[in-house]
Amino acid sequence: MSPDYDKEKVEALEAELECLQKENEALGLMFETMSRKYIMLHQAYLRQKSNKRQRLEVPAAGGSKASQVFVKTDPRDQSLIVQDGFQWRKYGQKVTKDNPSPRAYFKCFMAPGCPVKKKVQRCVEDKSIIVATYEGQHNHDVDSTAAGKSLSASCSSAIFSGTRSIPFPPLDNPFRPTITLDLTLSGSDLQNHRNLPSLMHDYSTSNDDGNNKKKKIEDYVAFLTKDPNFTLALAAAVARSIKTEHPKPSPP
DNA sequence: CGATTTTGACCGGCGC
DNA sequence: GCGCCGGTCAAAATCG
């Protein structure tokens, strides 16, 4: 072990450390932005829920359920396409009063008679976020190849499911939707992602006001993990990825 | 030329 | 009862 070798090694490690710190800082900022957006959307959702149509909260016979999925997209992309593994046919578009962005109406036509509909509209607060509202239950299985493609080819990522109730019970239900719970944030390199707690620890200790930020992040994580809908969506996403890795052979 | 999307018209529910 | 608004229909337009 020569001193030169050690020095070189130390320099390399320092460079790597600096690189990681910058990366952590950027990811931390993105995480904070995302958490703000989530809180904003959650509050808007709660406001709407409490202000409008309270009588509709009485569940219909058979339980008509709706779930919302928030999808982060490229703001330049004006299309209202949410790749979720199902085939949808657009049957209408409307501009609603509370949102200048048009709302598109889709029906599932993967199977004849499938009653599922979805409404897709850009978030009024952040036009890079698409809100997809699903209604009904599919009477057929999801097209796993399309779902797989949608995960790899789409530049969008569903950041969370703001569900009042998820119409497709996760894991054991073959009719569940492809709710992609992607907390990695669009545009970031998958290879660069370490596990979140250590990432947050590095980030929080590398800043002067680290304690404050750390507390914010911990609060947010606690908030998310307490939300049963988040847990359900997370479980669905994990199940989805397992299914994609080990696809069951399709019948001839 | 068939499939799909667009878009204006129509319908029904809800609040005033 | 009337008007507003969201959701759906269906003819026209567009696409492959």
Automatic annotation (TrEMBL):
Residues 77-143 form the WRKY domain. The keyword NADP does not apply. It is found in: Nucleus. Keywords: DNA-binding, Nucleus, Transcription, Transcription regulation. One of its GO terms (cellular component) is nucleus. InterPro entries: WRKY_dom, WRKY_dom_sf, WRKY_plant. SUPFAM superfamilies: WRKY DNA-binding domain. PROSITE patterns: WRKY. It comes from the Eukaryota. One of its GO terms (molecular function) is DNA-binding transcription factor activity. Its main location: nucleus. This is WRKY domain-containing protein. It comes from Gossypium stocksii.
